[in-house]
Structure formats: structure tokens, C-alpha cells
Specification:
It is a single chain. This protein is α+β, with helices and mostly antiparallel strands. It has a single domain, classed as Ubiquitin-like (UB roll) (Roll), CATH 3.10.20. It has a five-stranded mixed sheet. The longest helix is centred in the N-terminal third of the chain and has 7 residues. The chain is globular, with a radius of gyration of 13 Å. The N and C termini lie far apart (29 Å). The mean pLDDT is 95. Bound molecules: FE2/S2 (inorganic) cluster. FE2/S2 (inorganic) cluster (FES) binds next to loops. The site of FE2/S2 (inorganic) cluster has 12 residues, from loops.
């Protein structure tokens, strides 16, 4: 089982670690656990609202595509470790991944 830890930029939210199997995306996990991550296009790599920072374990995720990179460029405060959560498919079975969810209060929609 993989261990995915979510940290939050918002000060009043505590970090949470979730067990999950291979084949899930970080967005799917965040939805299952009501973590409040926006996903305006429904997870089809057509917006940038599911933007996250991957602090650890990038090698355990599906590789960044050119399309994803284009949308990351439109996100708020993109960094070298930026990804779109809907494109972060877990490829392994015993991986550890740590991500930061940016402040969602600056985004509109779901
Ligand atoms: S939900 Fe739109 S790109 Fe991930």
C-alpha cells in the first residue's frame, strides 16, 4: 500500500497521511477524503485548479506531459515541483509521496 501525505498551505488545516493502492490519482484520493482540492475541469487536464506541489516521491507518479506542463504554467505560483493532481497517477505499490495543497481560498469553482 502507498502512503500519501497531504500538507496544506492554509494554516488551520493539519497534515493527513492516507493509504492508497496503485492506480489512483492524487486528485481521486483528495476527493475521497474531502480535502477540498479544486478540480474545475473534472480531472481531464484542462485547467490548473488541481495544482499541487510534490515534496517527495515524484518518481512514483506518472510522468509530466507537455499538456500538463502548459496548464501548470497558468497556475498560481508554479514551481519546479508543481504538478496537476488529476495527472498524478500512482504507479507503484509501496511508495511514499508527500504533497502540499496550495491555499484553495484564492480559487473559484469546485
Ligand atoms: S482538474 Fe483540471 S487539470 Fe486537474
Amino acid at each position: 500500500m502507498n502512503k500519501i501525505t497531504f500538507h496544506f498551505e492554509e494554516k488551520n488545516k493539519d497534515s493527513i497521511t492516507i493509504d492508497c493502492p496503485k492506480g489512483e490519482t492524487i486528485l481521486e484520493l483528495s476527493l475521497q477524503h474531502n480535502l477540498g482540492l479544486h478540480h474545475n475541469c473534472g480531472g481531464v487536464c484542462a485547467c490548473s485548479t488541481c495544482h499541487i506541489y510534490v515534496q517527495q516521491g515524484m518518481e512514483n507518479l506518472e510522468e509530466l506531459s507537455d499538456k500538463e506542463e502548459d496548464f501548470i504554467d497558468r497556475a498560481i505560483s508554479p514551481k519546479l515541483n508543481s504538478r496537476l493532481a488529476c495527472q498524478c497517477l500512482l504507479l507503484k505499490d509501496n511508495a511514499t509521496v508527500e504533497v502540499i495543497i496550495p491555499n484553495q481560498s484564492v480559487l473559484l469553482g469546485d
